[in-house]
Predict the structure of Anaerobic selenocysteine-containing dehydrogenase.
Amino acid sequence: MSHKQPALDLSPKVSDEIRKTTCYMCACRCGINVHMKKDPLGDLKVAYIEGNRDHPVNKGVLCAKGSAGIMQHNAPSRLRAPMKRVGERGSGEFEEISWDEAYDIAAGWLRPIRETNPEKLAFFTGRDQSQSFTSLWAQSFGTPNYAAHGGFCSVNMAAAGIYTMGGAFWEFGQPDWDHTKLFMLFGVAEDHDSNPIKMGIGKIKKRGARVIGVNPIRTGYNAVADDWVGITPGTDGLFILSMIHCLMQAGKMDLHYLAQYTDAAVLLNCDEKSPEFGLKLRDEDGKELVIDRTTGKPAPYDRKGVRPDLAATYRVAGITHRPVFHQMAEMYLDAQYAPEAVAERCGISAKRIRTLAAELARVAFDEAFELDHEWTDFRGEHHKTMTGRPVSFHAMRGISAHANGFQTCRALHTLQIILGTVEVPGGFRFKPPYPKPATAHPKPHCKVTPNAPLDGPHLGFVQGPDDLALKEDGTPARIDKAFTWENPMSAHGLMHMVISNAYAGDPYKIDTLFMYMANMSWNSSMNTSGVTQMLTDKDENGEYVIPRIIYSDAYSSEMVAYSDLILPDTTYLERHDCISLLDRPICEADAVADAIRWPVVEPDRNVKGFQSALCDLGARLGLPAFTNENGSQKYADYADYIINHQRRPGVGPLAGWRMGEHGPQGGRGDVNHSQLDNYIANGGFFVEHIPDGANYYKPWNADYQDWAVKMGLYDTPQPYLFSLYAEPMRKFQLAAEGHGERQPPDHLRARLREKMSPLPIWYETDQQGNEGFTITALTQRPMAMYHSWGSQNAWLRQLHGRNPMYIPTKLMREHGLQDGDWAQITSPHGAITVPVMEMAALNENTIWTWNAIGKRKGAWALDKDAPEATKGFLLNHLIHELLPPKGDGLRWANSDPITGQAAWFDLKVSIQKVAAPAGAESQPALPPLKSPVPQAPKNLTWKVGQ
């Protein structure tokens, strides 16, 4: 009997239509093809999501998160209509209302504030990708109290990079994947930038390049690294400075690069008695001065033909001036940075530190190469070739979320700069619109005027004490105390301190807390239980201490229950979004790009994109940026804003298809009413490549500078030197030493003198009060999760439905633990009881768990017995926004003293084996929240078409 082959359809119909847009399941902003199929009623529904092969970010690659966007869009936890609270805060008792009523309530609360005291509104947003828009709204309202989530996420990395070289890792740049031969990662988890990094690592490993991972935890990228360095948490800066010591000792530095493109040759005042001690010498035009090797005389750094001298000294008016490079040599050649002196603290042997430093030098210098790219530098000098140094670095939250994170990030930038590996072939390269020096960014503004806009942008880069956000009496102007003597260079604000400061009335009381996508009653707050109490506590008059809370989210998160008015957001497939160059880059280093999202499906609920809701609310409040001269609404919705808003002439939210003299063009141009249609027709993105020869040496390349002006990235060419020596920090030290009119409080003088070193230093994070707590506890995002919403996603929950505490072999044995046992993890602030698992590839004195898997019962439409709510847990219960008392009568923020970034990764704990809790549920087990949306069905299925 012959075998009969089954009839197979080898080309099944995947979809009836493909709609191209931008993913929102993490910060990569990958391009996606959303396949649509007709349902039985003939309506198009999302059936399948794949990567867009034409997109410059991911080139078709898509991760688990991106594919699972279908389940994000169809999540049972989606909010369905505006709601007002009708029970007590935290009760979850709400009443659905119309948008008109919601706007009336919000305007009724906000209008009196704006008319009398705009600072009484605190407006803070989470991981939204429209910060140029939301900051404009807050600025137009007139409150100084605005920031996004960077203060508890990335400000150390971003600020350190911008103050040093005009950009940073993370979203500002990338390795030169085509030429690098040695790639070194520090503190990189797998949730951010995952597709580009995966693609890049695959490319360089195929070519035989080596990858070195520095991280206490070996997962993801570190698991595929050729060499894993399981460093002691918080000591990355010491390790980096020790490698700098080795390189300087061996003379392995790119001296030409340092002299030509950095401030290493810039002269410093070296007279300790001078009020300008440690400041740079400048000419009458404010240009930094160097000694020209040709003439032996001082000259502006950018004069044509100047050859900056790294060795010369200069004496004028009785004061000796020495180059920055002298200071660096004195500091880093000191024996305190020798590998033998740092090895024990770093958990890395002296021999290995020397070997790693030697490997960096070998690849950077012995494997250097030339590209036949002609270019002209900012001094007018023409070059026939470009020198390649094939060593590149990447770093993320692992090194920045410490109280020494700013200086650690600066140290890493210094390391790559002395090797000459920034903006050169084979090294780290910026993504347009970066690089931009700190001086090209605005300074923070805080002048409040009733019924009028703020006097300028809220956030920025201070250049000294005169730029601090202080009131006339010297008290903080902002509720989060950003840009004060406590954290002078807090470029992203301190979102983690807003609720506790508002609750304490320090520096003042607020009236309304307005938040978007910020799950501050759960995984986005330190001291989770304490914060929920702050949100629900009442004063002696029976009124809430924080009087009003407006919140916007797409889902029934934990924060919803603690709010008074809910403005329901759409999912990312149901709204317009703008991934704008006014916010951050999205592309590779060889091109400029931006992108949109657009409603590939219309909402089936009474919800509205938050940005569109702000357009409506801004008009009702009469905010100048959102109303016409006759008082009518200026922007019908966010799409209207994207098209018609101009930040300055010819420059708007989108750079593509702007209207020029001869039709649509990229870069500068007038409003084009078909602009969004042009983006949609092109797959949702715009990209324009940098001309050949202009794509390296961006800060100093005349062709790149001219191209950047043409594209609207700058208004004029602005070449600059990298700042190995951060002069603004020296100005704060001078103030602490008694110089200048604006003086810090006495109790902060010593800290400012010590921590604000203009050359990168390392210091122990403040662990006073942690006696007996000797183990570091960390969290890390899994590759399949990004925001807390990921662990309510039906598909992604199958990958990470619970999170054990991972404990290294040594500690497992010491405490008699085995997989599946339970342990009590205790910090000076609290205790949790959780299941444990052994992990060998882990620093021997570090424990860790996945972040944001644990859920509060009743939230996210999950079953009360869902593993995320019973076996999942948060480390946040162990972390406080304040450090343990020091005995000085003060409570210090658990933050970096320079930027205010939350020091999540300085957590110290102890471990004790315990019996499983009743019901084998992780502790603390908080009472369930009442959900404003129905619980998800037991079996969630989704299929469109046949």
Summary: The first helix runs from residue 64 to 67. The first strand starts at residue 17 and ends at 22. The mean pLDDT is 94.
